[in-house]
Amino acid sequence: EPEVTQTPSHQVTQMGQEVILRCVPISNHLYFYWYRQILGQKVEFLVSFYNNEISEKSEIFDDQFSVERPDGSNFTLKIRSTKLEDSAMYFCASSVNRLNTEAFFGQGTRLTVV
Amino acid sequence: AQTVTQSQPEMSVQEAETVTLSCTYDTSENNYYLFWYKQPPSRQMILVIRQEAYKQQNATENRFSVNFQKAAKSFSLKISDSQLGDTAMYFCAFMNGASGTYKYIFGTGTRLKVLA
Predict the structure, then answer these.
(1) Which CATH class is domain A5-97?
(2) How many independent structural domains does chain B possess?
(3) Residue partners of A73: CB distance under 8 A and separation at least 6
């Protein structure tokens, strides 16, 4: 069964460093999302992406964050200069189209900023 | 702004018994969707059940059913004949059908443990 895959499963980075989280959505899906979950808190929406541009972003998604679909299969989240408070589980998700409300999630990347 | 509240951080149930997970939400919208997602340990979130707000009939999927009380803004999940494989984190989620963005708003989750 097709699934969303995320790499790496765990990333440790120094504060101030750039980090790129990678996702391969399901191949026929058109809508892509990033969510994050700080330990012990709720899963929060970061950004949605469609037709090679951002559809919506939350207030969390500031200038330090960017997303890209560089090659038609990968969907990446870049954090330019990581802060301690960026430590969280980051989930990628994709959906077929916006009329189909079910999103398929990856296993997540645990980002630890030290 | 919409919010989702899950008031039970942890629950446990004996195998083969029934358990109900609570979820309440707040919205002024009339067109929306509600979901329960399950996240087994070290696995991805998968959709358990979905309810369209315009449908009065409660959704069911095999052993999983919901009690959707629109006026009370309540959306509880009932798991019947609980199995060990139901052990997971369960997230309630809301989606505003009128906004056009199709993002989820999640609750904090309920960790369910099924006991042998």
Answers:
(1) mainly beta
(2) 1
(3) A24, A25, A27
